[in-house]
Amino acid sequence: MVRAEPFWTDCALLDRAGIPCLLFGVDGEGAHAATEYVDLASLDRLTGILTATIAEFCS
Fold first, then answer.
1. Neighbouring C-alpha atoms within 13 Å toward the C-beta of 59
2. How much is the pTM?
3. Are 36 and 28 spatial neighbours (Cβ–Cβ below 8 Å)?
């Protein structure tokens, strides 16, 4: 899923400095709340993306 987020992140500072950036992560609900959860399928997808990125970068 691709979507815009309504909250501020450090990506704004990077963009202002001319540094391309991408904010991505898992799906879920309740970020930073007392009850928070992560969708496990999205966690699996993110793990695959990060693993492939690390493997390509380090090769």
1. 6
2. 0.69
3. yes
